[in-house]
Specification:
alpha+beta, eleven-stranded mixed sheet, four-stranded antiparallel sheet
Length: 521
């Protein structure tokens, strides 16, 4: 059997259990499956974006990324440390329960729990109090309005449902802590869960009792994870799938020239980095060579960003020396610089550090960042020319995420879109700050820079936007000068769809919003 035929048969098999296509059914092919149905279980943009079809927050982003009402209709800062939210009346959960202040209290208590993987998304949160059935006060550590941005990803559960199902504590993908919420849902959003078979299909059906104005015409969404890029394309071209939200960039010319196929593409907010283990010792017991800045500088000197973009990303990425994309608040063009690759400089730096022919493991995933497997292979070869001896450890993110989170990877990839905050504070607070409480939750390298921490703390307390951004800029400069991370590029995104999809919302945050999708023949 030919390879192409095998791909097509695999695509048809993946979609074989779909109901007959109709104008109201969206068959959606994704690059990877969901981690969990619990939105608090992992700080993953893709996981949260899918679950936003089921769950909602107090506020949300509008079309221009401005904060607008969702489950809260009004809010105000009643003093420097308290936000008061007026809740929307008449909202029902999918099981028919009424939405009230008790649900907000239970949800914020759960997401801020010490074991919650998502607690880093709300670093300013200090506590929640019920005022009455439709009013809550949320205490914060600083008066900045960034708190509103942060909570766009904090979805609200039904307090009674959590208690009944022994789910008042969050689950955690990294530690494989599961519970009822891993496979069951009960939100207020535009779609309800009908069924889920992990690694096969997740089906949503329309919530006819949704409180908001319906702007879509969908009755049903069938989400099918298809890991193979070739199989995703074959499934689309054979008509088995209506939409793929991770169109492989190497296949874009073919898709763009195919009759009846529309391709949407742009650069994403997400920046892809190289990251280092910064513990005292590596997993094999050696003193950690990456704690020497010369070794980190040698890695950067060996990496050719332009070549990666040309050969691996087909010229569609944006090579970057900046830790954040230009669209993110806090971006500074002066920090968006990098030097051409220089393998000889890399060797010189390694020699100075006493680390000639440095061997280490480079942990990669084959289903997280765009073309990550090829990026890892290319960078490994570049580092070999620069005097390193890397060994690539590549596997799906379900296997690699626990290694990365637990600090068991010598060098690894990380990508960050600064969502939901859309401000440099997200990167600074969650990735670059010392790991303590809600700070540094995604600081998988376990580094610590007290000067940076002071600037981030000051930025959180600064109500003046210009002054806050100046403090953030100083912190970003420290991170760049210390080579805490090595930015590679802002990655491209592309969605491809059949003519059955008449309109779709496509933004730089790469979040599907199928409640705005319209189908038609």
């Amino acid at each position: 059997m030919s390879r192409v035929k095998s791909f097509i048969l695999a695509a048809m098999a993946a979609a074989a259990i779909a109901v007959p296509a109709s104008a109201e059914t969206l068959r959606w092919g994704g690059r990877a499956d969901l981690y969990s149905l619990d939105p608090y279980s992992v700080p993953s943009t893709s996981n949260l974006a899918f679950l936003n079809h089921i769950y909602e927050g107090l506020v949300r982003y509008g079309p221009e990324f401005r904060i607008e009402p969702a489950l809260a209709t009004e809010w105000k800062l009643v003093d420097d440390k308290t936000w008061r939210f007026t809740l929307r009346k008449g909202v029902k959960f999918h099981d028919g329960a009424d939405f009230t202040a008790d649900d907000v209290v239970a949800s914020f208590t759960r997401v801020s729990d010490a074991t919650s993987p998502l607690r880093g998304n709300i670093p300013l949160y200090a506590g929640v109090t019920k005022v009455d059935d439709y009013t809550v006060d949320i205490a914060v550590t600083a008066p900045t309005s960034l708190f509103l941005n942060d909570i766009t990803n904090i979805f609200i559960f039904d307090a009674g449902w959590l208690k009944t199902n022994n789910s008042e504590k969050p689950t955690d993908v990294a530690t494989k802590t599961e519970g009822y919420t891993t496979m069951h849902t009960n939100g207020t959003g535009p779609f309800k869960l009908e069924s889920r078979v992990p690694d096969s299909k997740t089906v949503l059906v329309v919530n006819d009792g949704w409180w908001d104005e319906k702007k879509h015409n969908l009755d049903r969404i069938e989400f099918v994870p298809i890991a193979s890029a070739a199989t995703r394309v074959a499934a689309l071209l054979s008509g088995e799938i209506d939409l793929i939200d991770s169109a492989p960039i190497q296949d874009l010319p073919r898709l763009e020239s195919s009759p009846g196929v529309t391709v949407k593409k742009r650069t994403e907010l997400r920046t892809v980095f190289l990251n280092f283990n910064r513990k005292e010792k590596l997993e094999d017991g050696r003193p950690n060579p990456f704690n020497d800045i010369r070794v980190r500088q040698a890695v950067e000197a060996s990496v050719d960003r332009e070549l990666i973009n040309k050969k691996v990303m087909r010229g569609l990425a944006r090579p970057s020396g900046s830790l954040i994309a230009p669209e993110i608040s806090g971006y500074d063009k002066a920090l968006d610089t990098y030097s051409p690759a220089d393998p000889e400089q890399s060797k010189k730096l390694l020699a100075e550090a006493g680390q000639t022919d440095l061997a280490f493991t480079y942990t990669c995933m084959n289903d997280e960042s765009i073309n990550e497997e090829d990026i890892c292979s290319g960078i490994a070869n570049m580092m070999k020319r620069g005097g390193f001896k890397p060994t690539i450890d590549i596997a799906p993110r379900a296997v690699q995420t626990p290694k990365r989170s637990a600090g068991k990877a010598d060098m690894f990839n990380l990508s960050w879109a600064n969502e939901p905050t859309l401000d440099a504070y997200s990167m600074l607070a969650q990735v670059l700050s010392t790991k303590k409480g809600a700070m540094g939750v995604s600081n998988y390298g376990n580094w610590s820079n007290p000067e940076l921490d002071k600037l981030v703390a000051a930025a959180a307390q600064e109500p003046d936007n210009a002054k806050r951004l100046a403090l953030e800029g100083q912190a970003l400069k420290i991170a760049k000068d210390e080579v805490m991370l090595i930015p590679l590029h802002q990655q491209p995104i592309a969605w491809a769809m059949l003519g059955t999809v008449k309109s779709i919302d496509f933004r730089a945050d790469n979040k599907p919003r199928q409640w705005l999708t319209k189908m038609g023949q």
